[in-house]
Amino acid sequence: VEITDTTLTFGPIATTMRACADEAVNELEASVLAALQGEVTYEISGDTMLIRSGDGADAVGLDFVAQS
Fold it and tell me: Residue 35 CA to chain centroid, in angstroms?
């Protein structure tokens, strides 16, 4: 990954081709991988990191919150 002050640029992400038995887990994995493709924007505020790719109706995002 290449990091700037506002963007993360991901190269190819390697995963296994084996699916999980739980369809909800497969859907979560697909969503995470879709959000981490190419260049994305990010913002860190307090203990939360927001990642966004695309714009408008095609926007995909992930929100990470640190837990203690």
Answer: 4
